[in-house]
Structure formats: structure tokens, C-alpha cells
Amino acid sequence: MKKISSSRRDFIHKISASAVLLALPFSGFSRSKEWDEFVTSDTIYGLVRGSRIDGVNTFKGIPYGGKVSGDNRFKKAGPPESWTGIKDTLELGPPAIQAARRGEPAPSEDCLFLNVWTPANDGKKRAVMFYSHGGGYVIGSGGSGGQDGANLARNFDVVVVQTNHRLGLLGFLYLDEIAGGEYIGSGNRGVQDIALGLKWVHENISNFGGDPNNVMIFGESGGGGKTACLYAMPEAAPYFNKTSIESGPGARMLSKKQAQKTTLTVLGKLEIVQSDWKKLLDIPAEKLLEIQNAIPTVPPFQPKFNGPVSESPIWGFGPVVDGGVLPHHPFDPKAVEISKNKPLLVGWNEDEYNFFVWQSRDVAPFSMNFEEITERLQGSIGENAIELVETYRKANPQASAPEIFIAISSINMMGLGSIEIAEKKAKQGGAPVYLYNFGYKSDMKIPGTDYEMGTPHAMDISFKFNNEVPPKEGEAPRMGFGGSKPDRYKASHNFAAYWTNFAKTGIPFAKGEPTWPAYNLETRRTLRIDAHCEVIEDRFHEELDVWRKIGKLVTS
């Protein structure tokens, strides 16, 4: 048998590279057309004009922060400048510096803009759903098509808000020890921008039909990691009431030592000595993006990735436990006290790994036998892969070798961290935590195989935003990761109903679907989200016993 080499570092490099695909509109979303009429709203900085389309008022590109370019590069953002007259907010604002994005303005350093979808600017106090986009801390925007907020606003009577914020090197370069002063906190500017967006919501959302005292923060993938940071940040704490972390379990973030190593790597690539760090302020953003792209980013929400620095030559860009902006890891060694009384949803998709198979075109596992998948898994898990494969085969006797490979790889990526968060939150004894698995199976085929996509990473986006909906009369059906089966519309409605009702009440429920019980350390009940949802007690317990035994699932 030919040996297939694999390493944790190579695999994570693929994950980082694939993040760009999270920006694509994989599935159907609310139809685009010219607006029915203009609508206006007041903010504390001036009047804005948006559009009303199919019963939803949409405001795009509202400034929520000031300039973060030039002399303000790497500094904490201040408020936007006020304006006179009425500012048009009819088009998306520029996203953070990254490769050009289809259907969006050119990226810009000055990227602090947000979008609002609301049923009406009528003074009604609706729940606010504040979403942070995915993209592994290096790409993405609040304007991606698959996460368009119009259907949530229209069909579930909520207000949806999404921000653009600093990313990558410009959002997370740790300069505290080199620059000091106004640059303290630079390793967390991206999440500080999001916190500033939350403050904007608190001060302005009542003018958009939202309740500033009923705000849910949520996010997927890198957005889940950002949301975990907000959960632990003192400057964000006053501005939200409940949280959902989706396929991005940010139990721990980068240490100062890890972040400092990345900073020194950046300076080295630019041939800048530490004492001349201010030269960073004059380098064009495009050049900094080149440097950023040459540095692999290791997502810190991956299980057990916050080990010794020697595990990786550099760790890339992401939030930093700096003792100030982010005083502690969000869920390590335990759930932070600052959000003890805020309810939490957390979970993952059953077939996360298939997204990365699709992106990398690495379809080799789909033709492997059990011996071959075991050898391949040893590259990322080590010798414990033998026991894991044996356990998964006993627990799932009808599963094929590729199916076992995908199950192990998917839970290792996103599931173990989600369970860790649920158990630590439950152990804390504060507000309830709810654990989920998204399990609707797409019939879209993985290119180059006869295998269906299942429930890959990022497929939940269009479902929870209720953007898997039947086409309107005269429209052709859209098909993306969600596939072509009509029951996807019911699964999308269920997902959106649980999430919007959680936003409204702190209790997730969907009419006609099972009651979702809070997670506890005795029954460990989990909701499986599908066209017909199911509550499962102590799911994957045999498999998880092995993950705990080998030290990959740590909850105490």
C-alpha cells in the first residue's frame, strides 16, 4: 500500500486557504431587484437613506467607526464623523483588505461599515441578531450573499445587523511589546471593531425597529471564533444578551508569545528591525496583504491548538489573549465569568470536512479502505487513530471507510471544541447552554466522486438565514451546497425558527419541532437539526469516550 503523507500543519494550511470560499453565495438568497421606495432613519451621526424591498427596509454601508488608515493604522477605532443632510446607504461599504470580492466594492483599509435589515423603522422593539462573518480572521464581509438578512427580517420579525471589520495583519498584528502606547491592544483590533459595531447598535438600533436591550451575537467559522471573543471581552459585554457559536468553537485564542512570533516574522519579511517598527505605518496595504498571504494562519479554535509555540513555526493572525482587551481565553480553563448569565447555543455540522475536500479537490479518502484511512488519520491524530477507527466502526457498523474518515475528521475539526464549550458552560451553573448538530444531507455530489456533500462546513449559513426558500414565480431555483431536494426548505425554516426564537426569548424553539432541552453533564441531550429535528441523548458517547481518553476532548 502506498503511504499517503499528511501533517497537521499542511492540513491547517488548506483550511486557511479555503476560507476565501466562505464568501461565496452558495445557495439561494432573497431576490435582488430595484427598491420599491426609499426609507430614511436617524442615527446619532446623521440621517441615512435606505431602500424598501419586498417588505424589508435595508440600509447598506452605514459608517459605524472612523478612519483606521494612515496615522490611525493599528490603533483603536473612534466613532465616525457626523454628517449633514441625508447619507445614501443603498450599497455595500468596502470590505477589509483582502482579494477583490465578487459583487462588492473594492477592499479598503477604511472598512468600518455595517448593514441593517429590518421589517420597519417603526419604533417596535424587535430582537436584534448581530452576525459576525466567517473567513478565518483573514477574509470575508458582512455583505456576502448567502448570509443576506432580508428573509430573517421578513419571515421572523427580527432586525439583522452585520459588520465589516479589520482582518488579517491589519486587524490582528500584535504590537503591544514593540510599540506600546496607543498601539496597546493592536492584536485584537478586528474584534474591537465588532465591539464598536455593537455599541453603535446600542445607541441607534431603536431607530430601526430594534431593541437595544435584546441583542444576540452569532457567527460561523471564523465568525464563531470572533463571537467567542466577544463573549469574553469587557468592552463588548454591555451590548449583548445571548450568544451562538457555530462551527467555530473558540475555546482558546493565541497567546502573547505566539502572536509575538508572528509579528517578528512579518518584520523579518519586510526587513524591518524592531526599533523601526513605525515603518509599518507607511507600507501600502497591498504590500502588507502580500506578506499576510505568505504566512499560514492556524485557526486557534481548532482543538488543542494552543499548545507550546514549538508545535508550529508561526501561528498567523487571530485574536490574542493580551490581558487587556481579551483578558482570558473564552473557555479555557473554564467558561469566563463575564458572560455567565448569558444563554448560549453552540454546535457544528455533521460533515464539516467535506467542504475542504470540495475546495482542495483532495478526493483520495473516498477510494480508501479502512487500513488506508487509518494510516492517513495517523498523520493528523497520531497512533491513536487506530483505536478511533476501531471504535467508530463498532459504533457505526454499516459505515464505509470514507464515511468513517469524514466522521472522525469532521468532529476533530469543529465538534470537540463545541462539546468542550457546552460542557464548560454547563459546569459553570449560570445561564443555559444548548448543543446542536446540523444534519440535513445535501444531495450535491462532491466533484470527482459519487459521494454526496452531506452537511459540509458553511452549509448552515444559508439555512439559518432562511435563504433556502422556494423560488418566486418566474425565478429559476438556485442550488448550492444545500442541494436540490425540496425538504431543504423545511430544514432551513426549522434552523431559522430555533435561532430567531432564541434571539427573542433566550429559549430556542420551533413550532411543530421537538423541545430543545438545555445541555447538562448527565443526559448530554443534543438537538439534531434537519427537516424533522430530533433530540438525542448522549450522542456519540462511545466515540467521545475515546477522544477524552486520548486527550483530544478536555472539559475539566
Summary tags:
single chain; 556 residues; alpha/beta; 13-stranded mixed β-sheet; two-stranded antiparallel ribbon; 15 strands; disordered N terminus
Task: List the topology elements.
Elements: H1 8-18, E1 37-43, E2 46-53, E3 56-63, E4 86-88, E5 113-118, E6 126-132, H2 150-156, E7 159-163, H3 168-172, H4 189-204, E8 210-220, H5 222-232, E9 242-246, H6 256-270, H7 285-293, E10 344-349, H8 353-360, H9 370-381, H10 385-395, H11 401-428, E11 433-438, E12 442-445, E13 452-454, H12 460-464, H13 488-505, E14 525-529, E15 534-537, H14 541-549
Parallel strand pairs: 2-4, 6-7, 6-8, 8-9, 9-10, 10-11, 11-14
Antiparallel strand pairs: 1-2, 2-3, 3-5, 5-7, 12-13, 14-15
Helix pairs in contact: 9-11, 10-11, 10-14
Question: Could you explain how this protein is built, in words?
Answer:
It is a single chain. The protein is an alpha/beta fold and 556 residues long. It has a domain at 22-254 and 323-345: Rossmann fold (3-Layer(aba) Sandwich), CATH 3.40.50. The protein has 14 helices and 15 strands. It has helices at residues 8-18, 150-156, 168-172, 189-204, 222-232, 256-270, 285-293, 353-360, 370-381, 385-395, 401-428, 460-464, 488-505, 541-549, and strands spanning 37-43, 46-53, 56-63, 86-88, 113-118, 126-132, 159-163, 210-220, 242-246, 344-349, 433-438, 442-445, 452-454, 525-529, 534-537. Strands 1, 2, 3, 4, 5, 6, 7, 8, 9, 10, 11, 14 and 15 form a 13-stranded mixed β-sheet that branches. Strands 12-13 form a two-stranded antiparallel sheet. Helix 9 runs parallel beside helix 11 (401-428), helix 10 packs across helix 11 and helix 10 (385-395) runs antiparallel to helix 14 (541-549). It is globular.
